[in-house]
Amino acid sequence: MGKKQGRKAGNSKNKSTSPPPKERSSSPAMDQSWTENDFDEMREENFSPSNFSDLKEELRTQCQETKNLEKRVEELITRIINAEKAINEWTEMKTMTREIRDKCTNFSNQLDQLEERVSAIEDQMNEMKREEKSKEKRRKRNEQSLQEVWDYVKRPNLRLIGVPESEGENGTKLENTLQDIIQENFLNLVGQANIQIQEIQRTPQRYSSRRAIPRHIIARFTKVEMKEKILRAAREKGRVTHKGKPIRLTADLSAETLQARREWGPIFNILKEKNFKLRISYPAKLSFISEGEIKSFTDKQMLRDFVTTRPALQETLKEALNMERNNRHQPLQKHAKM
């Protein structure tokens, strides 16, 4: 009994002094290098083969765990490296983003400056357009004023068209020719004291044998009323002659006023065919009787606005009011000339 207790105590001592299994090398090479003496020592220490197998299995497990740990460490290192790369790339991207943002800000500032410059240029252009419109209005007003002045100067003038030329013509002969025309066509005007001619001449003044038609005669009366009487008598008579040959009597107008009168031509002719009582009065105003009232129009827009209230008249003048400008210069019929 005492021996057994002594052996147990010895075994306990040996067990306590022997290194734990985990502190031994887990290398497989050392496992193979163990000798029988090692096993004997282990037997003396009451270390059975089953315990050795457990220890060996535990060592293998620890080796595998160590390998797994090493693998995890390597993976962690790889992840750290990748994370560092990602951080570096992110830092580079952040730097690039900041640079791009700065460039965008700079570009936006340049765009703002450009917009300001464009806005300033647009303002200048609008101002120039306003000035141009103002100049155009002034130019038109000046042209209209000049036309009115020129028409006013020409207002006492009477133009005779188609009177044959003769040799040695002078003011006296032309005045006698006009008196002959008045006597031939307007007997009621003969002998009136207010038929006073201030000046009479051919136009253009220079004679050219290459002209196919006679030059016009311009007669300037001392009073406008006399010219108006002659034109009124010519309209009433319809056909004016000189020595039996037809001639024309018209007012002496500026080129602009004459063109404005010519533009009434198609409308005048259509209304004349429809038996309207109408005339073109000074300087270029179309007048006719509609529903018992005299209507006068200084331009075609006024006439367009008026015919919208007269459907039948609008249908009659539809083509004439919308025709091309190239067709607007149709001359008035002979009986329409004034």
From TrEMBL:
It is found in: Cytoplasm, Stress granule; Nucleus, Nucleolus. Residues 112-152 form the L1 transposable element trimerization domain. It holds the Pfam family Transposase_22. Residues 26-36 have a biased composition (Polar residues). GO terms for molecular function: nucleotide binding. Nucleic acid-binding protein which is essential for retrotransposition of LINE-1 elements in the genome. Functions as a nucleic acid chaperone binding its own transcript and therefore preferentially mobilizing the transcript from which they are encoded. This is LINE-1 retrotransposable element ORF1 protein. It comes from Papio anubis.
